[in-house]
Structures are given as C-alpha cells and as structure tokens.
Amino acid sequence: MAQRRASRRRVETVASGVAELVPDPDRDTAFTLLLDGAPQSHVDLADPTYLQFEYIRRMAAAIDLVAAPGRPLRTLHLGGGALTLPRYLATTRPGSAQRVVEIDGPLVELVRRELPLPAQAGIRVRVGDAREAVEGMKDSGYDVIVLDVFAGARTPAHLASVEFARHLARVLAPDGWLIANVADGPPLKHARSQVATIRSVLPQACLVADAGVLRGRRFGNLVVLAGRTPPPVAELTRRAAGDWFPGRVETDLDRFAAGAVPVLDAVAVASPAPPAALFGNRK
C-alpha cells in the first residue's frame, strides 16, 4: 500500500516553487498540495465536501450561511491552489458560476492534469494576477469573493491595501460577501491592519479563528467575513464551536483592530512569513 501511494506522488517545479501532490495515507482518493513544503490545499476527489484544513472549513461554513442552502452563487476565487473550495461549492450549490484567478500557470496545469475537475462543474480558471483581474471586472458581478492568495506562504502587499479592497467591494453585489484568509501571528499587527482595511469598505464584519490565534498566542489563519449587512454570527458561532478543532467568532472588531488604520498602497506590506517549524510535521 505504501509503495502504491508513493508511486502516485507527483513533484514538479512550477512558477511559484516546487509543487508536490502527496497522497493522503488515510483517504485513497485524496491528495495534499504542498508548495515549497508548505501545505496549500487538500482535495478528496471522491468527496469534495471533505475539508481537511480547519480554516477552509471555516470559509466553507461562511459560504454555507450567506445564502439559502443550495442556491447557486456567482463566486470569484482569488488564489486557486488545488481548487478545494470551488469543488466544494460545485457540489453543495450546483449551478454556481465560479471564476478562479491563479497567477501560477504551471500549477494550474498540474492540478488540471492530476486532480481533474468534475464534468459540468461550472469552474473557469484564469491565469493572472488577482489585483489586475479584479480591476478589470464589472461592478456587482459576484455574490461571494474568496480571497486566499499566497506567494511563498505570504499574501502579497498589493493585495493588502485599501485601494484593492475598494475594487473588491465594487465587484461585489450589494448584498455580497468577502471571505478572506488572513495569516498572522503575535502580535497580530498585520491581521489588525487588514481588519481595518477591509472594514473601511465593507463595514459589517466578523472574524473566525482558533482562540489561541485570536489572542495572539500563536501563528495561524483568521477568516474575515465582511459585507454591507450583518453577518450570520449566531450560526457561525455554532459551526465554529462544533468543529473538529473548535474556533471562536469575534464580533468586536473595533477592539480587535486596536486603533489600526486602513493600509494604503504606498505603505502596504506582505503578510508575515510563518515560523520555519510550522509545517515541519505536515510534509
């Protein structure tokens, strides 16, 4: 069995580094995508609703709750990886029109070849820079935008500014939602500034994360749900508390931001690099 799994492992150099598709030892139809050793995505081809990474489950929970169950959603995914959430949405909300923007063309080809999408999934993948793509999009074109872009385990600076956030808000429908993955660690300076930046254009927001991350005790992922109407806090709280790794919903974002101000292009920086040992036990 171990030899067969090893024969299914794929290693290729792509534009953003060395990509590895590693078979899941516990699920015969599942794979983890690593980029330069950092886990980027996990996909079960036979069951796209199985979500291995906790922050992805939190993003999926937000998608589940922002519209009636099963209702198709016009969705823009900025950052592709192995297309975990697009596959999930195609299964849970059939008929959804989904566009993915991923800058790494060779990675897109690797995923298409080794982890093919289901027929009639309604997922279109465009190779390009996320900001350039969004700046060229029409107003109010999407019900949901998922922002999950990493280059070398860091979100690029030009995707962390208020100028970019204004474009995201522009292409969202009036009742649409931004779901953003923010990676940070103590003292959460980047996360606080990103909350202030996003709320400057989409003021109704909350955070979902591990309690230790929210308290600034360790590095991790914070999921921001932001729009123009109140988020579904009660149900998000229930879902987060019932997760395999329970999370917490933070609604007092004035307190969380702690006086941080929206970040302009002129001073925007990339998100901090994760600790070197963070992924050591996941390769």
From TrEMBL:
It holds the Pfam family Spermine_synth. Keywords: Polyamine biosynthesis. Gene3D superfamilies: Vaccinia Virus protein VP39. InterPro entries: SAM-dependent_MTases_sf (IPR029063). The keyword Membrane does not apply. The keyword Amino-acid biosynthesis does not apply. SUPFAM superfamilies: S-adenosyl-L-methionine-dependent methyltransferases (SSF53335). This is Spermine synthase.
